[in-house]
Give the backbone structure.
Amino acid sequence: MTSFGALDLGRAAAAERRWAEAYEHLARADSTDGLAVSDLELLAMVAFLRGEGNAAVTALTRAHEASLTNGDMEAAARTAAWLALYQIELGDLSHNFEWVPRGLRLASGIAEPSAVAGLVQVPPAVAQLASGDPLGARRRFQEIGEIADRFDDHDLRALVLFGEGKCLVEVGEHDEGFARYDAGVAAVRAGGASPISAGIILCTIAGDAHLAFDLARVVEWTDVLDAWCREQPELVAFSGQRHALRAALRMLRGAWAEASAEAELALARFRAGDYRAAFGAPYQFAELQRLRGAFHSAAESYRRAGETAWEPQPGLALLQLAEGKVERAQEQIRRSASGADPVTRRHLLPAVVEIEVAAGDVDAARHALAGLQSIPASASTPMFSALVAHAEGQVLLIEGDATRALASARSAVEAWGVLGVPYEAARSRVLVGRALALLGEAAAARSEFDAARGTFLELGAHPALAELERNLGKHPSGPLTARELEVLRLVSTGLTNRAIGSKLSLSEKTVARHVSNIFGKLGLSSRAAATAYAYENRLV
């Protein structure tokens, strides 16, 4: 086959989005006679989409150097901009110090104005957003939008909609930001975005919908991403993240076997070259392992996710909690929440409440709940409302207000049922049962516990099932947390605070706080009285 024939075949395959065939033919043509700048750019795009990141950067760098040699400053600026974007996608931010200023400088010297003047502004706008300046980044994206409109550049306009949306979400303008995201999805559906731009947009905004607890958009945008990937069966880039997002959605829906298969596919596509899935693939796999009780495997998966630029939270802290390492879980989630941006912190707060309740820190749990309750109504979604109702039930129970806890927990159960999220509905049923037990309605409490048990058994949620079984029938313990029950049982054996701490891997100070909480909640004044209470109520 002549190089000319290979080049034509490669161009035709790329036009039809047959990426494997396109890569093979274009690479053959390049190795035989070399490629012109436009075809090197095409080869770079195809290589990127096939998961060959290094090859993509090499081809695009050659296109850039050839453009400089030819005196084509517009092509040189364009390739510099895409090199910066490629390397952001590949997690290599160091080279942006080279390509971003070079692209800006080259664009400023172009004789005839073009949309490239806007494209070179995209990487620095993304970097500005990542550095914690969403307002400045938004101003830059607005300027880019004016250039996109002036030159009727649909791909640049799609990137602007995505960028502006992310900036608005970061500053708390949820409705406006997600409206931009909706417009970005519409642009992709209409074919107004190049393949790499479309992948960036769809993967990012579907992930942001998860962070915002916007289940309706999670479903819609994940379906759009899924359909887009299915149209390109040879696609590697973005395909791993597609499976990771599908795994997260199936976990919510209670299809854990399907979620496991999706997580495995996400890991396989990550190994094949989808850098986008470097965090999402192992993190979603770890989440499923944690809920099923495979704690050792979950820890390893969280560790792999943590090798990226993102912290594997709240999953890792919740794993520590499930393992009984309450103090460590508390330290981790507090550190993560305190250093998080507003969007991420909001996503972490339900786990903060859960862990602080388990640790017996009522004030910290109430403070985290207040953070959830302070979220503006414009940013609320049905799923977020369910999470808040569940968190309210947890805090009210630890405060001893069973009546109000019951109302909140029932609201959560109803909301989860409407959303079709069985595991969370079962967890909220456990809260309902605990509140009913405190109110003396033993039969009704038993019914709720039985319903929750059935769901946990069906899903294979072994840790949740074990926790329910441990606490079933021990309702006279009142508002005590699981950790406080452990401490009370050990107090009843005559152990000192130091000995209890050694047994539970807690500090003596933490044990003393738990003992104080137990005395206060149960109206007791001595360890002897606590021991008698434990035996009288069959807690030991």
